[in-house]
Write a structure and sequence with these properties.
mainly alpha, 15 helices, about 0% strand, Growth Hormone, Chain: A, about 425 residues, single chain
Length: about 425
């Protein structure tokens, strides 16, 4: 297969392999840490979780970062990205260890959320840096396949991390603190792995580097305005439309994730432990869809073009999500999880490639940070809408229909842009 051949060629790039190792450790740790958060907040037997509580948790963890995300983009275009990966990983190690101590101490929930918020903020910073650095370690010809392999491998690493977290809970007496400490160790491994790359490798260019925080932030508003103007110019409008489409698809994904959490917690099982196991199976099925997208996207998008591939992904989701979701049964819902994994990751790979090839290196950090902010705002907004619509057990036909309409609108809009 051409995909296998391309992967073999891509893995011969030494610096790509090293950057990939950092991503695998980092997102593996994310999977461990986020599983600990989910079990502590959603699936603790003593907690009566509601869709509103889940939406509140997402807002606490994601919205504050959305306020500082653009500033981190400026820093990614002004600081050595290798140093961002190193110090960001070390900081997450310390913060995750602090979270474990808070769990053991049984502190008020708000203090736990503050600690988790800090980890999440640094985490998004690091992921933006990984995306912005990718074009520095592969050539343009193989950037599409790199965007297929790297984020998808990271997602699979996060899924593996979640599985490892379940295993640790089994042998550590359901200890969320032990799981969080495991995440801290993996964050440390990500930091150490980044040391295998030189300081200058991942950019930005030496003329753009400003090592002092004050100097880097002094022109933030001006730099952000320049980034928006850069994205609005005709050569970059394809990237702007792709970001718009991906934001709406992220909204749909967030709403369906909240529904899935509620269904697994209350509708599909009577015990919190059984619901957690079913959620793990659903996430594993979705990861299989992510992997399938990594294999298909380079081949299909290379022939259709990224825009038409986004249209195909959104259109497929618009048709299959209600067909598989409306029965509100575990087996069709698992199939829907696979479809969402395939379509969401397929569209994201295409969007990443469009942004990376359309945006100049000096603006990539800012654009990818704005990308993350859009993701977070859409995700939290979806959780809020789901909290208003979902009944206590999570069964809601109106929510599924609304999501399907949004997917269809994305497909129609991107198809119209492609014709223009």
């Amino acid at each position: 297969m051409s995909v296998v051949r391309d992967l073999r060629v891509l893995l011969r790039f030494r610096d790509f392999r090293r950057l990939l190792v950092v991503r695998l450790f980092s997102q593996g740790a994310d999977g461990v840490y986020q599983t600990a958060l989910a079990t502590y907040v959603v699936f603790s037997p003593e907690k009566q979780t509601s869709a509103a509580a889940i939406a509140s948790a997402m807002a606490v963890l994601l919205l504050p970062y959305s306020l500082v995300g653009p500033f981190s983009g400026v820093l990614l275009d002004r600081w050595r990205r290798r140093q961002v990966l190193l110090y960001g990983s070390l900081l997450r190690t310390v913060l995750a260890s602090a979270t474990a101590l808070l769990i053991i101490s049984q502190v008020p929930d708000w203090l736990f959320y503050v600690s988790a918020l800090c980890v999440t903020a640094v985490n998004r910073f690091v992921l933006s840096g990984l995306s912005a650095a990718l074009p520095r370690v592969v050539d343009d010809e193989r950037l599409m396949i790199a965007n297929s392999l790297s984020p998808t491998a990271g997602t699979l690493a996060a899924t593996a991390g979640a599985g490892l977290a379940f295993l640790v809970r089994l042998v550590a007496w359901d200890s969320d603190a032990a799981v969080v400490l495991l995440g801290a160790v993996l964050y440390l491994c990500a930091g150490l792995a980044s040391l295998r790359m030189t300081r200058e490798l991942l950019g930005p260019d030496s003329s753009l580097v400003q090592p002092r925080v004050a100097a880097a932030l002094s022109g933030t508003v001006r730099d952000l305005a320049a980034g928006v103007r850069h994205l609005a110019t005709p050569p970059r409008r394809q990237a702007a439309w792709a970001l718009f489409a991906m934001t709406l698809m992220r909204f749909c994904y967030g709403a369906l994730l909240v529904m899935l959490l509620m269904l697994c917690r209350y509708a599909f099982s009577s015990q919190a432990s059984d619901g957690l196991a079913l959620l793990g199976l659903a996430l594993g099925t979705s990861a299989a869809g992510f992997f399938t997208a990594a294999v298909l996207t380079p081949w299909v998008a290379g022939r259709l073009g990224p825009d038409r591939w986004i249209v195909a992904c959104a259109g497929t989701a618009a048709l299959l999500v209600p067909a598989l979701g409306l029965p509100f049964a575990p087996t069709p819902m698992l199939l829907a999880a696979f479809v969402l994994g395939l379509t969401t990751q397929g569209a994201k790979i295409a969007t990443d490639t469009v942004v990376q090839t359309s945006v100049e290196d000096g603006f990539r950090g800012r654009i990818f940070s704005v990308y993350d902010v859009l993701f977070n705002v859409a995700f939290v907004g979806a959780a809020g809408v789901a909290a208003l619509i979902l009944p206590p057990d999570g069964r809601s036909a109106p929510l599924l229909v609304t999501v399907s309409v949004i997917y269809a609108a994305v497909a129609a809009t991107m198809a119209r842009f492609g014709r223009q």
